[in-house]
Amino acid sequence: MFMHNKRLQYTVRVSEPNPRLATMMMEQFGGADGELAAAMRYFTQGLGEDDAGRKDLLLDIATEELSHLEIIGSIVAMLNKGLKAQLAEGTMKEAELYQMVGSAGSSAKESILFGGGPALCDSAGVPWTAAYVDSRGEPTVDLRSNIAAEARAKIVYERLINITDDPGIKDALGFLMTREVAHQKSFEKALYAIENNFPSGKLPGVEKYASMYVNTSQGEGDATGPWNSGDEWDRVDDLEQVMPIDGGDGTATVKLGSADKKVGQKMAARTMSDPSSDPTTGADLGAGPGAGRTKTGDMGGAANIEEAPAKAEATVAK
Ligand code: MN
Ligand code: MN
After folding, report:
1. How far apart are CA 28 and CA 153, in angstroms?
2. Measured in angstroms, how far is the CA atom of residue 19 from the centroid of ligand 1?
3. What are the structural domains, with CATH classification, of the chain?
């Protein structure tokens, strides 16, 4: 069960209202790497987890992320406090209120539709979606994704810290950013606490392909590094020699039943192309300047139209 404590996990001290900054903060409220996405990611993973240690970790962090959602949402609410009241009471001059809403940045939706309260949207007003959560129900996969999600959240907080000079907001964001660092460390430990965590899942990779590096992009700029050269890699530079890699003929085949075979031949016959034909098409008939070479001449346009009947006759005669 959830219980709510009225105190925030970290004190929010906003110096002055700033609707534009509020809109930017929405990125960490209802955005792709925001706190709602983090909370839902770990909560659903925790519910489906069977390992007692990981379940506990996921539900602890999920609940903390909800507490972060509360902090960032409170920052948005404080930054919009003046705007919200002015919109509701309508006592300000129209032009001044228009100016105030206009200062809310790219998303007027935040003021006009949601009245300045924190909405489940990102900084551009795009509604939150469950598609931000990419869990696959396999711990070695999901923990890696969680590590990346925490790394992303850290960077987004860093950018928000860099665009605000409000010391109270900077302080609270610094706390939120640092908690993502701690979460990343926990997820890394949980991943490596699984003895065989690479490759993901149960099936082993095919030995001869697992250490192959294929230099498929060749030319100036070809580089070597520990990611493609050295003892751990079988580097392939001569692509002709290894394509297809399995030593087969590189074609795609399937065994068909007689009914499928028959209807397939019918379809092939009906849609067969005639390489010896040279049909006149709509592009030929409508060709104007810039059409390139067409049956009406290589410049297109009215100047070449005389050639068309002769070619048409030749086609008919054939
Ligand atoms: Mn968080
Ligand atoms: Mn986190």
Report:
1. 8
2. 22
3. 19-192 (1.20.1260.10), 207-242 (no CATH), 258-317 (no CATH)
